[in-house]
Amino acid sequence: MRILARATTLPPRARRTVGLVGALPLVAAAGFQVALWRGAPYGDAVLGGRAPTVDGALTTPYRWAALGQGGLLVAMAAVLARAGSPGPRRAVGTVAGLMALNTVANVTSPHPLERRMGAATLLAALCGAGLAAQRGPGLRV
Length: 141
Description:
- The chain has helices at about 1-5, 10-35, 60-80, 90-105, 110-135, and strands at about 55, 55-60.
- The protein is mostly helical.
- Helix 2 (about 10-35) packs antiparallel against helix 3 (about 60-80), helix 2 (about 10-35) runs antiparallel to helix 5 (about 110-135) and helix 4 runs antiparallel to helix 5 (about 110-135).
- The longest helix is centred in the first third of the chain and has 26 residues, at about 10-35.
């Protein structure tokens, strides 16, 4: 068991690199949310196609919700980007859990764009889960 634990422990620099890679899809998804807030005609590609739209753009309340979601995604990306530094082990695990739930919702969506975005969030969730499982210097409970 010790051999397995030793083989799966990454040094802090490697955890940080994996965290940065995992943060990139979250930043891209945040950019998409900001585009929705600005009126991009992709309203049918979010919320399973159930959000009300006008000429493809989300209505005002849903635009504000998209902006809030974008802010949350940026915050989650920041947590993953700091994964190799001292501190945020529980926060990284929380991000991984939220991304796993989000990925299930995206992958089961009827819209192909939302399903493809689900694959990007899956990458971030997997990186976050891997980082959350790491033990060693740099990650404290």
